[in-house]
Amino acid sequence: MTSLRLRVGAGAELLGDLHYVRDEYSFDFQPSDGDVLARRCPAGTTSLLVQNLQLEVGLPEQSLMFAWGLHPQTIWSESRLEPPAARPGVVEVVWPDDLSLGTSVAVDDRFAWGTTWDPVRRWLRIAPSSVDDGTAVEIATGVIVVVSGDQLRSVWLNPAIVDTRAS
Question: Over the stretch 103-155, which tens digit does the pLDDT of each residue have?
């Protein structure tokens, strides 16, 4: 269990494309502007870990950037989902110490984070409960995080589904 906290702020979401690659069981995010990560993350990146899903964190600002990584479709349950009304913004990770380059930090593991998929609307919700109270922030195209107080409540993803990664 970690003692990380989150802080919501004003700002623009990272524009790009979120894909779920079926044969790799993973998410991939490609920024629209190839140089944006160098500008937003001059000191590199690290990530928050929700199950196996990574929420990339830019350094030194420690802001959430996008989602990526392993998240097998075999663990998703299907249900109709209504994504929260989100506003573009920035979510900063507040950590007692500086986050280390390339070292993932797990979010609170006292709760089981379940995954629900709406195949009609193509929304995926990863959360420890069915309650989504809090502020919904679109940090990147197709990536919404819900923060209540200073805690992560859920992650919402709206990926394009592809069978294999484009070369």
Answer: 777 776 666 889 999 999 999 999 987 777 899 999 999 999 999 999 999 99
Q: Where are the domains of the chain?
A: 5-162
Provide φ and ψ at 63, rounded to 5°. Answer: -100, 140
Q: Which residues are CB-contacts of 81 (< 8 A; sequence separation ≥ 6)? A: 116, 117, 118, 121, 123, 124, 125
Convert 120-156 into a string of H (helix), E (strand) and C (coil). Answer: CCCEEEEECCCCCCCEEEEEECCEEEEEECCEEEEEE
d(CA 14, CA 37): 9
Token representation of residue 100: 């280390």
- Closest CA relative to residue 145, chosen from 34, 35, 66, 59: 66
Q: Count other Cβ atoms within 10 Å, centred on residue 60.
A: 12
What are 18's strand-pairing partners?
A: 29
Please compute the mean of the pLDDT values over residues 27-50 and round it to a whole number: 86
Distances (CA, A) of 129 to 8, 146, 152, 154, 167: 21, 12, 11, 8, 37
| Alpha carbon of residue 107 to chain centroid | 12
> Is the pLDDT score of 1 beyond 50?
no
Q: What is the pLDDT of residue 132?
A: 76
